[in-house]
Write a structure and sequence with these properties.
Elements: E1 7-12, H1 17-29, H2 31-35, E2 39-42, H3 53-62, E3 66-71, H4 73-77, H5 79-94, E4 99-104, E5 120-122, H6 135-154, H7 158-190, H8 198-214, H9 216-254, E6 257-266, E7 290-291, E8 301-304, E9 308-311, E10 320-324, E11 329-340, E12 347-356
Parallel strand pairs: 1-2, 1-3, 3-4, 4-5
Antiparallel strand pairs: 6-12, 7-8, 8-11, 9-10, 11-12
Helix pairs in contact: 7-8, 7-9
Length: 363
């Protein structure tokens, strides 16, 4: 399954030993996707010693593409997991910045579904992992479901392939039904009294291969009918894709210059000094958004560190043009202070007017 983008999967799991063991088991089943560079996993067990665990979890949650919420009684009983992480995950799901998938580890009251409306539940049939024998069957089912979600994010032709698979399955089902019906009619018509005899059985076996070629025109007609039924869906897909791409490209070309938040600086001197290091406050939302994390000079080239909004004007209340992605190159046009963090604080918020680089990133 080719992929240009590595999909980041965030595991939202309780601190229960049993839940963590199931999380590790799921990681093992997803290992082939990890080795192929299709996905990258992150969970709280990967936090290095000395790191602030809450800020690490928050930062990795915000950069996730798929959030796996592992549901159990221990998870729903945890204030942090239920009231903090779950809510943040659903906010990202509604904003379509990430996809939430709930994994039912063990049976719990259905009240948990209220917090996760319109969210995919695995394993299929909402049958908890602990209700499968052996558990590996459940993990295989979950892995297949997650792989489908990964394909949606990495394969632009996913919708077309899905429609074609449905057409193929529909044709096979109808043809099998017709062939079986013809066999039954032929058997009962030619051998009404000896349908259980060896002669009747031989007739069915010998003539099965003879009837199938006669069905070829039927197969072609059915395929055409089913394909026509899906044509409108395929056309809508192509139209929407083309329109969205055209709109996005046009919008970015028209609005390749705007303002972004770059960080906080110490403003005791009353001026912004080029090269002065931007601060890393305890709130990760206020970390510098550019690399290198210093106050840049006009004309310098910087790299976006994490997703940040490009706005039409310097003020936060102005129109958002679109979202810049991590790794994009920008040319600094102008750097200006926005406002003090608080009235008595020596720190000031800094924004920069930027424009996107062309292919060679010329100034």
């Amino acid at each position: 399954m080719p992929s240009k983008k590595v999909i980041k999967i965030f595991y939202c799991c309780s601190d229960s030993n049993q839940d963590e063991q199931m999380q590790q088991k799921l990681e093992k089943h997803l290992s082939p996707l990890t080795w192929d560079g299709v996905i990258a996993n992150w969970h709280k067990g990967m936090i290095s010693a000395g790191k602030e665990w809450e800020s690490e979890i928050d930062a990795n949650l915000k950069t996730a593409d798929i959030i796996l919420v592992l549901i159990s009684s221990e998870f729903t009983a945890s204030h942090y997991h239920w009231n903090v992480l779950a809510k943040q995950a659903m906010e990202m799901h509604r904003a379509r910045t990430a996809s939430v998938i709930t994994i039912l580890l063990s049976p719990v009251d259905n009240y948990w579904k209220i917090a996760f409306p319109n969210v995919k539940v695995l394993p299929d049939g909402e049958r908890a992992i602990t209700q499968w024998k052996p558990y590996d069957k459940a993990f295989v089912n979950i892995t297949e479901g997650i792989r489908v979600e990964v394909e949606k994010l990495t394969d632009p032709t996913f919708a077309i392939k899905k429609s074609l698979r449905q057409i193929n399955a529909g044709v096979k089902s109808v043809v099998n039904h017709l062939v079986n019906s013809l066999f039954k009619v032929a058997s009962f018509t030619l051998f009404p009294l000896t349908k259980a005899s060896s002669r009747s059985s031989r007739f069915r076996r010998q003539n099965k291969t003879a009837i199938i070629p006669l069905m070829n025109p039927v197969i072609i007609i059915l395929s055409a009918v089913l394909l026509a039924s899906q044509t409108s869906n395929l056309l809508r897909f192509f139209s929407a894709k083309t329109l969205n791409n055209h709109t996005l490209i046009s919008k970015q070309k028209a609005n390749d210059t705007g303002w972004i938040w770059i960080g906080q600086a110490n403003n005791t001197s009353g001026t912004l000094s080029v090269g002065e290091r931007l601060l890393r406050p305890s709130n990760t939302d206020l970390f510098p958004s550019i690399d290198p994390p210093v106050i840049p000079s006009p004309g310098s080239i910087v790299t976006v560190k994490y997703r940040v909004n490009l706005r039409k004007e310097k003020s936060l209340s102005t129109e958002q043009l679109y979202e810049l992605q991590s790794g994009e190159k920008l040319v600094i046009v102008k750097v200006e202070p926005l406002a003090k963090v608080s009235q008595n604080s020596p720190y000031i918020k800094v924004r920069a007017q930027v424009r996107k680089c062309n292919q060679t990133c010329n100034k």
